[in-house]
Amino acid sequence: MKRLILALPALYLLSGCALFTIRPTPILSLEEARAIVHSIAQAETKIEQFFATGSLLIIENQEETRLGFFWAGTRNPLRIKIELTHPWGGQVMEALVSEQQLMVKDHVKKRSYRGPWNQSPIAEAFPAFFSNEGLWMLLCGRVPLLEHDQLKAKGADKILLLDKKGRTVQVIGIDKKRGLSIWSAYPNPDLKLRFSYSKKTQDIPLAKGVQIEFADEGHSISIQFRNLVHNKPIPEEVFTLPLE
Questions:
Q1: 30: CB partners within 8 A, 6+ apart
Q2: How far is CA 115 from the centre of its chain?
Q3: What would the pLDDT profile of 40-95 be if each residue is shown by its tens digit?
Q4: Backbone phi, psi, residue 227, to 5°
Q5: By the 8 A CB rule, do 175 and 182 touch?
Q6: SS3 for the chain, per residue?
Q7: CA–CA separation, 186 and 189 (whole Å)
Q8: Nearest to 139 by CA among 151, 148, 131
Q9: Per-residue pLDDT tens digits for 144-187
Q10: Hey, what domains does the chain have and what are their CATH numbers?
């Protein structure tokens, strides 16, 4: 009898399980998908300039390289200054990107480069298919949107950007509750960006980290922002890089 009495509460709970059904996440509508992509594009236009400090973790063939970084950018004119340092502070590389040109000073190999952006060695570190505008957005913690002609909602949390022929050029994964893009995949080449956010500033989601995952599983770049500031004045001397 005692065992039966002890079992009754469990039977009651089991019988009531059917009352607590899990509701499926609502499917993302086309209108919602359009609104989210529009909000991503609108947030980008709110950033006129930025600067950031933090750390990079580069993993390649199971070898880890840790670097510090400072970078800054202006939209008009389009400029990006990148400085990479050893954890102990020694300089590794400086780069200055403009609308048409890239300059790089390699402090380790004691050499420099000046030439067109689309033929530059910076493609070794960042996805080569990004325009300099795309790199600008990535470095200020935003999702680079590729050119597309149409979009399609898929499931509860994915948006597909398509070209004229209906081919997928970009897939955006979203946090529907917050309306944030939390990852973005690019089929050509096979690459994924994962974003983490801390808060909003000036109504712009503020990234605290970006994970760049390449098709090769042994190759990734992790960006961790220590400080990320939008729309504050940047001294002009930041955007200089003497190569002599």
A1: 151, 152, 153
A2: 26
A3: 888 888 899 999 999 999 998 889 999 999 999 999 999 999 999 999 989 999 99
A4: -150, 125
A5: yes
A6: CHHHHHHHHHHHHHHCHHHCCCCCCCCCCHHHHHHHHHHHHHHHHCCCEEEEEEEEEEEECCEEEEEEEEEEEECCCCEEEEEEECCCCCEEEEEEECCCEEEEEECCCCEEEEEEHHHCHHHHCCCCCCCHHHHHHHHCCCCCCCCCCEEEEECCCEEEEECCCCCEEEEEEEECCCCEEEEEEECCCCEEEEEEEEEEECCEEEEEEEEEEECCCCEEEEEEEEEEEECCCCCHHHHCCCCC
A7: 6
A8: 131
A9: 888 899 999 999 899 999 999 999 999 999 887 766 778 999 88
A10: 28-239 (2.50.20.10)
pTM for this predicted structure: 0.81
Bridge partners, 106 (sequence order): 93, 111
Residue 73 gets the label, from left (phi > 0), alpha (psi -120 to 50) or beta, of beta
